Amino acid sequence: MAGAVGVGTGGAMFLDNDMRELMQRSQSGGADKISDISVEYGSGVNMLLLSAGGYAAGLIFEEDWLRETAMLSGSAILIAGVVSTVTKVVAGRARPYTGLGSGMWRPFSLKVDYESFPSGHVIVAFAVSGVLAERIGNPWATVGLYGLAAATAWSRMYTDHHWFSDVILAAAISVSVSRSLVQWYEGESKGESDEGIGIVPMRGGIGLILVF
User: Fold this and answer.
1) Are 122 and 162 a contacting pair, CB within 8 Å?
2) For the chain: N or C, fewer Cβ within 10 A?
3) Contact assessment for residue 27 and residue 144, using Cβ atoms and an 8 Å cutoff
4) In this predicted model, which residue has the larger pLDDT, 70 or 186?
């Protein structure tokens, strides 16, 4: 999966300039309003507050599914957010609006103008959508949830805050984190053992076991 993400992100970089030109040509009043609304789905503060509210509601009304889903959503946001923050600082990629080009990188600059890679808003949006899609398990809900996250990604490119490859990497990180987190949690809550090969002590030595 890491290899696929790396190849996909690298391929997206070849389209960064073309996608930016496309976004600049598509500017309109109506699109501005849609962008302003859709970007809120990627607000870390809003989504964490929503997760906290869902967790509290789950406790009050004794709804385990709601409580667990809110907990997983908040956890996915925090985990993916840490990965995003560290990557932003280490990479130091210039944002599109600076006019410095997609190839300008200043690692550890600690300036907002050089925190383009990856997109924090997209990280949040896909983390929430990923958890909800896994927990709900309905194809139509999955399409709608990922559609909301994609709208956030479009908004970040539309407002010239991120390159195409920034949002691709952010989406890949969040989907991987959120899906893995839900699958791990549901497996643990059911008492299922992890699949794979294990090493166990045996009389006279050690042995390998395959769990499936």
Assistant:
1) yes
2) C
3) no
4) 70
Tell me the residue ranges of DSSP E strands in the chain.
196-202, 205-211
First-last CA distance in the chain: 21
pLDDT reported for residue 6:
81
pLDDT, position 18: 96
Q: What's the predicted TM-score (pTM) here? A: 0.86
Q: How many residues does the chain have?
A: 212
Write down the pLDDT at residue 204: 58
Continuous segment of H or E residues that includes residue 160? none
Residue among 204, 142, 151 at smallest CA distance from 175: 142
CA distances for 60 relative to 53, 57, 170, angstroms: 10, 5, 34
118-142 pLDDT, tens digit per residue, is 999 999 999 999 999 999 999 999 9
Residue 12 contacts residue 164 (beta carbons within 8 Å):
yes
